[in-house]
Design a protein that fits this description.
Helix 4 crosses helix 5, helix 6 packs across helix 7 and helix 8 runs antiparallel to helix 9. Helices cover 61% and strands 12% of the residues. It has nine helices and six strands, in the order βαββαβααββααααα.
Length: 243
C-alpha cells in the first residue's frame, strides 16, 4: 500500500536524501518517493505504519515536519473499512447499479424483430453516465478532490474534475436521445481511455485511495473493478463506432 504525506523543511537535494534515508530505515517501509517541489512523500509499506512512527524517525531533525495529507486520511478510512467488510459488502452499491442498468438495457434491446445489441449497449451507456454523473453532482467538489488524486489531467488541472461531471451528464443525454452517435462514442472512447490510465497506475502501485466513480457518496476503494468498469465503457464505445 502507498500513502502520501506532507513534509515541510526540505530545501535542497541533500534534505531530500536525508529524509528519504531516515524513512526508508523504518521496518516495513518498501519505497519512499519524495517530491521536493510539492513537499510530499509517497511511502510504500508492506503493512500500515502509524503516522506517529514516521514522525519519530524524523525527530532528530526538527526542521523536517511530517503530517498526513488529505488523501492519506481518506486512505486510512478506506483501509479500516476494507478490514471490516467483505468484497461483496464493499462493492455492493456499484454491483447493484450495474445489475439495474443491465436489466433496463436488456428490456430496451428486445423488440418484435428480435434483440438489438446496439440499442441495449446505447441504453446501458446512457444509464451509466446519467447515474454516475448524478452521484458526482451531489458533491461535485468532493468528486473533484478525489479525482485529482489519480487522474492524469485532474492532477494538473483541477477544473477538469468539475468539467468531467458535466461531460458525463452530456454523454448520458446524447446516448439516451441517440444524437450524433459517432461523435458521442468518439468522445467516450477518448475520455474513458484517459481516465483508465490513471486508474491502472493507481491499482498497479497499490495506492489506497477512494474511487471517484460514484463521487463522495460511497467510500469505495480503487480496485480492479474500476478498471473493468472503465474498460467496459471503452470496449462498448469502440464496438458501437464500427457497428
Amino acid at each position: 500500500m502507498t500513502h502520501t504525506y506532507q513534509i515541510t523543511g526540505m530545501t535542497c537535494g541533500g534534505c531530500l536524501a536525508k529524509v528519504q534515508s531516515l524513512l526508508t530505515a523504518i521496518p516495513n517501509i518498501q519505497k519512499v518517493d519524495i517530491s521536493l517541489a510539492e513537499g510530499t512523500a509517497d511511502i510504500t509499506m508492506s503493512k500500515h505504519i502509524l503516522t506517529t512512527d514516521l514522525q519519530k524517525a524524523l525527530a532528530g531533525y526538527p526542521k523536517y515536519q511530517l503530517s498526513e495529507a488529505q488523501n492519506h486520511t481518506m486512505a486510512a478510512a478506506l483501509h479500516d473499512n476494507a478490514e471490516h467488510k467483505t468484497w461483496l459488502q464493499t462493492y455492493k452499491p456499484i454491483l447493484l447499479i450495474g445489475a439495474y442498468l443491465l436489466f433496463i438495457a436488456f428490456i430496451a434491446g428486445k423488440s418484435s424483430n428480435g434483440f438489438s445489441v446496439q440499442t441495449a449497449m446505447r441504453i446501458f451507456m446512457s444509464g451509466f453516465f446519467l447515474v454516475f454523473s448524478f452521484f458526482k453532482l451531489l458533491d461535485i467538489e468532493g468528486f473533484a478532490d478525489s479525482y485529482a488524486m489519480y487522474d492524469l489531467i485532474a492532477k494538473r488541472i483541477k477544473a477538469w474534475g468539475y468539467a468531467y461531471v458535466f461531460i458525463e451528464l452530456g454523454l448520458g443525454i446524447l446516448y439516451a436521445a441517440n444524437i450524433l452517435p459517432k461523435l458521442t462514442n468518439g468522445i467516450t472512447l477518448i475520455v474513458m481511455s484517459v481516465s483508465l490510465v490513471g486508474v491502472v497506475q493507481s491499482v498497479l502501485n497499490k495506492r489506497v485511495i477512494r474511487c471517484a466513480c460514484l463521487g463522495s457518496v460511497f467510500n469505495l476503494p480503487m480496485s480492479t473493478l474500476t478498471i473493468i468498469e472503465d474498460g467496459l465503457m471503452i470496449g462498448m464505445s469502440l464496438l458501437m463506432l464500427f457497428i
